[in-house]
């Protein structure tokens, strides 16, 4: 009886040991799965893991021993991780692609130069105008020497100016067109076409741009003149002084330089004509009109008003009577005359003579003095092409909402500015060459292009000198023939208001 009880107790103890081994195996598998997946480990899991790596023998059952897992399983369960302080090194990024640069540029244009996105940016027209101006400033800067552009800068200029000009491809207008139906009948429909002024002027401005770049490339192989290192001692101290051989340039180089000057002169005339026409078509902002005086006499002053309204008016005599010694005084005169022209135009267009803009001056008289004032403005613009923009032009550009006008104005303005700069650098070389040859000293005032040079007029003073020297032995100098590059723009220049000869007015 006692033996039977002891055998049953041993049997129960063996079964209890088997159940305990099975439970430890399940806990070991669960801990390995949790550790492999990187999940959180509880104290029970950590305990089961330690039991799995180093199992303790059961004091009640010495025969049941659980085998330890192989070392390969432990390595797979606990993969090696880098220390937290050893962060991976960032991969070097290459230069941004053209698509990324174009996205960034047009994103800034859409924001209106307001990177905060608060809607306080400028209009789309002004944003495009500023973008073209800033691009030209970064690409050209101030052309201090007659030398080609750097290849990378030239490629960037062509690429980015094409991006900005691509906006004009989507500025269209409706035009009538005929379409043939299936039954053979003709019907008139409206189709879209690029706006006429953009269709004419954008390709022309691109051509003028290319002519300027080609002109700069032509100075690549010249070796007769060079530039000193460091600034010069003249008034333009920031511009290097050109140097020529002791006897001056050769005759071939001198003629070639004159040819380049004539070509750039044609580009300058065409760009000025386009810019003047676009500014004329822009609307005058109300803020500028509200700041004007009530009459032209108050804007000009008594002396200038009397000179312009005199029966016998000569623009050359008028310009000799005013002070044009500095750029500030020239700009001030231009601002006064432009304000007077706006006042006179508003008075002529006013329907109510009793309004504040009414005047007792007759319509014919006002048209005459307005025509004279516009003639003076045109002479100032052509005699001093590098003068800054007037108050009227600045206000027109700032408050302009026409995107097409903004692109044409800014593009033609930068071409005009670059052409004038290249023309000045050529004049600097020709001045040094004249001094080296010991010929007539060409002053800076004589080297400036006047309206008479543009239109081929012969002033009355030259006619008087010709009559006085009719019996002289030496023939009069022959003016060099200019190279016509684009006849369309010269015709456009002649159609602008105030382009008649001053002598033909009386």
List the helices and strands and how they pair.
Layout: H1 2-36, H2 43-53, H3 71-77, H4 98-110, H5 124-140, H6 151-165, E1 172-180, E2 186-194, H7 196-217, E3 226-227, E4 242-243, H8 251-281, H9 286-290, H10 296-300, H11 302-308, H12 315-321, H13 327-349, H14 363-383, H15 391-399, H16 403-437, H17 444-447, H18 451-455, H19 460-468, H20 487-495
Antiparallel strand pairs: 1-2, 3-4
Helix pairs in contact: 1-2, 5-6, 5-16, 7-8, 7-16, 8-16, 8-20, 13-14
Biased composition (Basic and acidic residues): 462-472
Keywords: Guanine-nucleotide releasing factor
GO molecular function: guanyl-nucleotide exchange factor activity
Provide a brief overview of the structure.
Helices cover about 55% and strands about 5% of the residues. It is mainly alpha-helical. β1 (about 170-180) and β2 form a beta hairpin.
Structure characteristics:
single chain; 506 residues; mainly alpha; two-stranded antiparallel sheet; 57% helix; elongated
Description:
With 506 residues, this protein is mostly helical. The protein is built from 20 helices and 4 strands. The chain has helices at 2-36, 43-53, 71-77, 98-110, 124-140, 151-165, 196-217, 251-281, 286-290, 296-300, 302-308, 315-321, 327-349, 363-383, 391-399, 403-437, 444-447, 451-455, 460-468, 487-495; strands at residues 172-180, 186-194, 226-227, 242-243. The strands form 2 sheets. Strands 1-2 form a two-stranded antiparallel ribbon. A two-stranded antiparallel ribbon has the order 3-4. A hairpin with a 5-residue loop joins strand 1 (172-180) and strand 2 (186-194). Helix 7 packs antiparallel against helix 8 (251-281), helix 7 runs parallel beside helix 16 and helix 13 packs antiparallel against helix 14 (363-383). The model is unreliable at 32-65, 71-75, 351-358 and 440-506 (pLDDT under 50). One of its GO terms (molecular function) is guanyl-nucleotide exchange factor activity. Keywords: Guanine-nucleotide releasing factor. Residues 462-472 have a biased composition (Basic and acidic residues). Residues 38-54 have a biased composition (Polar residues).
